[in-house]
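Standup, Tuesday
Yesterday: got the pipeline producing structure tokens again.
Today: sanity-check two examples.
Blockers: none.

Example 1:
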Amino acid sequence: MLEISLDTSQLDRGLSQLLRNTTDLRPMMRAIATEMTSLTEDNFETESWGGQRWQRSIRANSEGGKTLQKSGQLAASISTKVGNDFARIGSNKKYAAIHHMGGNAGRGHSLNLPARPYLPISGNGMLQTGADKSILDIAIKSLAKGLA
């Protein structure tokens, strides 16, 4: 008679760790929110979105400042919120959306502002170049944490 014996203790430990990693996703969501904040800060610094330069503002051209950074309040207002199944980034400034997505503004909506997306996700849900890879890398590392 042929008898085969398998020791599955390592497999059991690995599967238990994977289950723990998928049950509490908050650490992964915090890491994703941190990455989105970093990408946003880079966008303000480079005045671009995923390498695509923003249209310079008239004020920035005339005063030599940076676009979307007259007072610095918009950049400073960026906040995140995380849960077990989400990572959010945004601003509480009432003018945040018009600057991010563009559109008509001002009295009588007579001023047409160009879109200058500063968050790493566009108004139509597209991630900026490179953000998808960064977020996927975070997810893979988070899910594999503790596995050897």
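Example 2:
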Amino acid sequence: MALVVPLMLAILFGFLGVLLWVETAHDLSAAVALASTTASTFREDSPAAVAAENDTFYGTMRQYPYVDIRRFRCLHEATRVSCTASAALRFDRTPLSVAWPGNPTLTSAAVSYSSAYRTR
């Protein structure tokens, strides 16, 4: 028991850490994609587009207290909106820090296109 229980706990915490990592990477990708899609519905680089992309991205990611957003940026080029983001997954804010001593950085990018005839 003295050998098996710690080994099983280490495997369990490692597995849960991988699940948390994959979930956070997926949610970061979804937030970036939603922000670029939202921004592409507005006229190029308008204040409303910038407000909408920020509201969408930060509104999606604020539910995660263990994620620190490092950078979020969208570039508007005619009908193309490309957004990128990076965030740190803070294992030290979770009980999983026992098995995961580091805090990995995740990145994501998305591109959306809008109609050249958009009037908003």
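Quick observation on example 2: The beta strands are 67-77, 80-89, 105-113. The mean pLDDT is 89.
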